[in-house]
Structures are given as C-alpha cells and as structure tokens.
Amino acid sequence: MAARRPTNTSNLRRQGRVTRTRLLEAAVPALAEHGFHAARVDDVVRLAGVSHGTFYLYFANKEDLFRALAEQCADEAAVLAASLGEVPAGAAGQQVLRAWLGEFFEFYRRYGVVIRAWAENQVVDRGLARLGTASFGRIADTLRQSIARAAAPGRSTRVSRANARTVELRADALLAMIERLAYVITSRDLGFEQDQLLDDLARLVQRGFFQPLAA
Prior knowledge:
about 0% strand; mainly alpha; elongated; Arc Repressor Mutant, subunit A
C-alpha cells in the first residue's frame, strides 16, 4: 500500500485565513443592506459563497462574526489614530491633512457599517460598545493633540488652561464632521471628484480647526 501523503498544514491554515477573511468581508454588505439586527447568517454565507457548515467552523453565530469585525475595525482605528502627526502651517499642513483624511475615508469605506452600529447604539454587548468608544476616543485624542500643537506653535506650554476646552471642542466637532461626511460620500454617489474633495476639505479643516489660539 502506498504511503499516505502528509497533510500540508500550512496550506490548510492559509486557506482557513482566506475563508475567514471572505466571511468578514461578506458581513459588510450584509450589514449595510439589512442592518445589524436584521442581517442573518444566511445573508453572509450567500455573499461569501460558502456553506453554513463552513461558517460555523469559524464563528459561533452572527454576533461572534460582528465581534471579530469590530475588533478588526478597532485595530485599524488605532493605526489610523497613530498616523496623524503634527500639522504645520501652510501648504505642508494641508498635505498632511489631505493624506490623513484620505486614509479616514478608506477606513470608513471598509468599516462604515460597524461604525454606524456603534454610533447608533445598535450594539447591546457592553464590551463591544466600550470597544467602539475606545476606538473613536483614540482618534479624538490624536486630533486634540495635533490641534493643540497648531494652536500654540513654539510655546513651552502647548495650550493654556483657558484654551484647553476650545481645543477639545474643535477636535470633537472635527471628528463629528468628517464622520458624517464620510457616511454621506461612501453611502451614495453624489458626483464628488475624490482629489478635488480632499484638496478642498484639507484647506477647510486647516483654516477652521488648526489655527493658533490667543495666548
């Protein structure tokens, strides 16, 4: 009898990662079409092109799938938050903002359904709700730090206590604005040309949110 060929476990692991990724990717349009509560495992497996049995090899249920998607979103939110550094004055600052805003919109295209589930309080799992709060908290903190540096350029004290609230308000307002704009431009075709949109938005954000404050 011929010897049985050994199983290529690395290939199986690679195939497993591909299948799991396919299920996570299929969850996005399923959630977008039906909403968090109405989306079903049936919708996900149909879009992924796999069987129910395959689904349950990777996830216990729809909530388990969403948890994995939310954790993936949180990881990328942390990377996004860390990617915005100092925003200098003038054209150089506009380029920094333009690049970061482009990354934010790409992030939202991938995870908008997760972000909306967090923002609209669709998530009943307290751990997942805290994960959403922490994810956007990181981005807000990054914006506060960048705005504070722009608000008090060259000073040993970054921003006075009197202006600290203004910096916080600017950061929160900016995050709310770009999140809503990201929702609008990623959920429907309004005819915006991407390059022009980013150019104009970067200028607007710099002039409206990254200007020096009074001492």
